[in-house]
Amino acid sequence: MDLNKIAGEGVAFAKGHGTGNDFIVIPDLDASLDLSDAQVAAICDRRTGLGADGILRVVHAAKAAEAEGQAAEWFMDYRNADGSIAEMCGNGVRVFVRYLLDAGLAEGPTVPVATRAGLRVADVVGGDLRVDMSAARHLGTERVTMAGREYTGEHVSMGNPHIVVEVTEEELAALDLSGDPSFDPAVFPNKANVEFIAPTPTGVRMRVHERGVGETQSCGTGACAAGAIGLAKGKGTATVDVPGGRLTVTVDERTLWLSGPAVIFAAGRVLIP
Ligand SMILES: N[C@@H](CCC[C@H](N)C(=O)O)C(=O)O
Q: What would the pLDDT profile of 79-115 be if each residue is shown by its tens digit?
């Protein structure tokens, strides 16, 4: 490979993560990149690509039809590692805002972001990023099958679909999340994210199988859904411990807040396959 070709034809990217949920950030301010599912999947491949749980494309809100009516300068175009589109990504929006701040595209401490699920507003609080994720919607009880075993869980929408299943600490540690879950296709025509949680003294411990990705180290919207279920009997704050670290979910009379670390740790250029 002629490295000059990468410098000349490659597109700029940054890499970041929020509690181990990792993303490739692609600044495409004027919305000139039209990435196919296969291209996204190739970039996110952990052996033959850069590797990530998803891609965050940074687009001027004025250039994105999905951002219409949202009072934000930037639109987050989120794609899962398999190329599929999701309505919302809680860790993604925190990493997206960290990128905007680090790149000088936003000043903070408050940064509104247009998303497919509507406006989300982030705040820098200490070293963390806290996002108003809007209230969780609890939609009842559903069945999910994972690794040949059927569970009953709570259907929660955070803009994207989740099923939260409570298990014991021992069951949580022993779960095999390497395969795909199955659910009622009439309820989840576009599939769902599945969170398994076990109670802790201050909240829950969580493992997640993400739609369009597989098991990840963390899922922000999953933590919101899990925290909302953990706090179902009232308002307050719950810690959500994930393999990649700790997130905090606070529910008040109006909304649900998601807080935690988000960092950008690399930048470069990549050839779009
Ligand atoms: N990791 C994300 C969720 C990303 C989208 C999800 N896989 C879906 O398809 O709904 C988060 O931090 O919320």
A: 999 999 999 999 999 999 999 999 999 999 999 999 9
221 and 182 assigned to the same domain = yes
Does residue 27 share a domain with residue 129? yes
CATH number for the domain that contains residue 218: 3.10.310.10
Residues labelled as active-site residues: 89, 219
Is the predicted pLDDT of residue 233 greater than 70, yes or no? no
The one-letter code for the residue type at 196 is: F
Looking at the structure, tell me whether residues 141 and 117 fall in a common domain: no
* Residue 193 assigned as binding residue: yes
Question: Helix (H) and strand (E) counts for the chain?
Answer: 5, 18
Are 101 and 204 members of one domain? no
CA pair distance 255, 200, nearest whole angstrom? 23
- Is the ipTM higher than 0.85? The answer is yes
CB 23 within 8 A of CB 53: yes
What confidence tier does 2 reach under pLDDT thresholds 50, 70, 90? confident
pLDDT tens digits, one per residue of 76-89: 999 999 999 999 99
Instruction: Tell me the best of 77, 80, 258 to mutate to test the pocket of ligand 1, counting ligand atoms within 8 Å of each CB and taking the most.
Output: 80
> What is the residue range of 199's domain?
137-254
The alpha-helical segments, DSSP class H, found in the chain are 3-9, 37-44, 90-102, 169-174, 220-230
Centroid of ligand 1 to alpha carbon of 96 (angstroms): 13
Examine the domain organization and report whether 121 and 7 are in the same domain: yes
Domain count, the chain: 2
Residues with Cβ within 6 A of ligand 1?
21, 80, 86, 89-92, 160, 193, 210-213, 219-221
Average pLDDT in the 207-226 region?
98
Pull the structure tokens for residue 93.
């929006």
